[in-house]
Design goal:
Dna Ligase, domain 1; DNA_pol_Y-fam_little_finger; DNA-directed DNA polymerase; damaged DNA binding; UmuC; alpha+beta
């Protein structure tokens, strides 16, 4: 059954309401214009509004499908008080074409209940019950079955329900509705769930007039970096993840994130990392008509461990490498800067693990790789293919090394061969039998060296296929 999910003032005046069946609506108003609801677009618009509201408080929660919760504890004085702050938020959103109803109360449920019938109400602590007493039950936002049941029982307002015993309400309509009622009356509260976790440290700069020049933006970031470092230094902490947010006057918000390999405790390092990041943006920072707020946060911090450094110059090498990795990661992204960690396995494609360098640099420095025999060529190539490529091989004997092979439509005559190196696959990890590999290091007549393998032994293939077939050959890597 199709129902109304939203309507305008004209539809309300003719008697239509939310959740009314569409057939009933057309019976009341045959000329009603109907449009399909777009829940995805509504959610995107609500998220965009929530992103804009971050300029007032970092604690913004979604109240689906059409509402927002803002925890303004300790923030209202920055905007001239609670009334001035609410008027500012509502007037800007109204100017953008939205219909807004706002209220301020000690509990989120009380504020939401008020917005459904009264706009601009500010309720002081302890006055929640009196503020919602005369409102209809439907303002609580409970299930329609509960609202209908209360109306049939003769309880039409929140005050009438509040006067009844809680055990009666719970027995008839459930503990969930009782908890909702208690929160609306201000007798209990439940914390909101912000869209984003609260950062460890926040510093910001508001401008009386929007700024758009690169010099002012850079100078502002530098000043905020120094303030942030000073705040963290009082508690002996350094930043591991930094986030700069630029709030435009038209409501658009741009967020730039920078990760670091070690806790950062210097403002000039933060400033340099953001400069690198801004210069490397594929979509440059567009100030539009200007930014009226720039915020710098430390989303993740760590306690800085004071280490005693000796006079050995090599002690600082690790710090220099970490700083270089941070700068490169700021330009091209942390996922593109990796280190290779050895793994305890004899399977070639699993012997090396790629990990982000910013988070595994120390682990990579302490890793132990297999020792190489002096004067001998490497046993494994430097370059392995992500997927081995099949080749055609001609061998002098069926289970012998290749004498000639065709790879990528080019024929190579083999002049030198080393092997085989037999690798038995990890049969306990596979759901079916896995063939044994025989690896060969081969060199062609032009001096190119390859790493190829025969996938399976003849006796293994005969047992699996039940008939004599030739094993497949693959190119797995290239030697430098």
């Amino acid at each position: 059954m199709l129902r109304i999910s939203a309507l305008n003032d004209a539809a309300t005046h003719v008697g239509l309401a939310v959740d009314l069946p569409l057939a009933n609506a057309r019976a009341i108003c045959p000329d009603v214009q109907v449009h399909d609801a777009d829940e995805v677009a509504d959610a995107d618009a609500l998220n965009a509004i929530a992103e804009w509201c971050d300029r007032f408080t970092p604690l913004v929660a979604l109240d689906l499908p059409h509402g927002l919760f803002l925890d303004i504890s300790g923030c209202a004085h920055l905007f001239g008080g609670e009334a001035a702050m609410m008027n500012l938020v509502c007037s800007v959103l109204t100017a953008q074409g939205f219909r807004v109803s706002g209220a301020i109360a000690g509990t989120a449920v009380c504020a939401r209940t008020l917005t459904r019938h009264v706009h601009g109400r500010i309720v002081r602590d302890g006055e929640e019950a009196e503020a919602v007493r005369l409102l209809p039950i439907s303002a609580l936002g409970a299930d329609m079955a509960v609202v209908t049941g209360l109306r049939r029982a003769g309880l039409k307002t929140i005050g009438e329900v509040a006067d009844r015993g809680r055990h009666e309400i719970t027995a008839r309509f459930g503990a969930r509705f009782t908890a909702l009622l208690e929160q609306a009356l201000g007798h209990s509260d439940a914390p909101i769930s912000p869209r984003k976790p609260l950062p460890d440290y926040i510093v910001e700069k508001r401008f009386a007039e929007p700024v758009a020049t690169e010099a002012v933006i850079s100078a502002t970031l530098s000043g905020l970096a120094g303030t942030l470092v000073a705040a963290m230094g009082k508690q002996g902490k350094g930043a591991r993840q930094l986030e700069a947010r630029f709030f435009r006057t038209d409501g658009a918000v741009r967020t730039i994130t920078v990760d670091t390999g070690q806790p950062v405790t210097r403002g000039e390092v933060i400033d340099r990392l953001f400069r690198e990041r801004l210069e490397a943006l594929s979509d440059p920072l567009d100030p539009g008509f200007g930014f009226d707020l720039i915020r710098l946060t430390a989303s993740r911090t760590e306690i800085v461990v004071q280490e005693q450094r000796d006079l050995d110059a090599h002690v600082h090498d690790q710090d220099e490498v970490s700083a270089l990795i941070d700068r490169i990661a700021a330009r091209i992204g942390g996922k593109r800067v990796v280190v290779h960690l050895p793994q305890d396995t004899h399977i070639p494609e699993r012997a090396v693990l790629k990990a982000p360098a910013q988070h595994h640099l120390l682990e990579a420095a302490q890793s132990t790789w297999p020792a190489r025999v002096a004067g001998e060529p490497p046993l494994r190539p430097l370059r392995l293919f992500e997927r081995p490529e099949q080749i055609k091989v001609i061998a002098e004997v069926p289970d012998g090394p290749p004498a000639r092979f065709v790879w990528r439509r080019a024929t190579h005559a083999v002049v030198r061969v080393e092997g085989p190196e037999r690798v038995a696959m990890e049969w306990w990890r596979a759901g079916s039998a896995v063939l044994t590999r025989d690896y060969f290091r081969v060199e062609d007549e032009e001096g190119l060296r390859f790493w190829v393998y025969r996938d399976g032994l003849f006796e293994e293939i005969e047992q699996q296929e039940g008939k004599a077939v030739l094993p497949n050959w693959f190119m797995h890597g290239l030697f430098a």
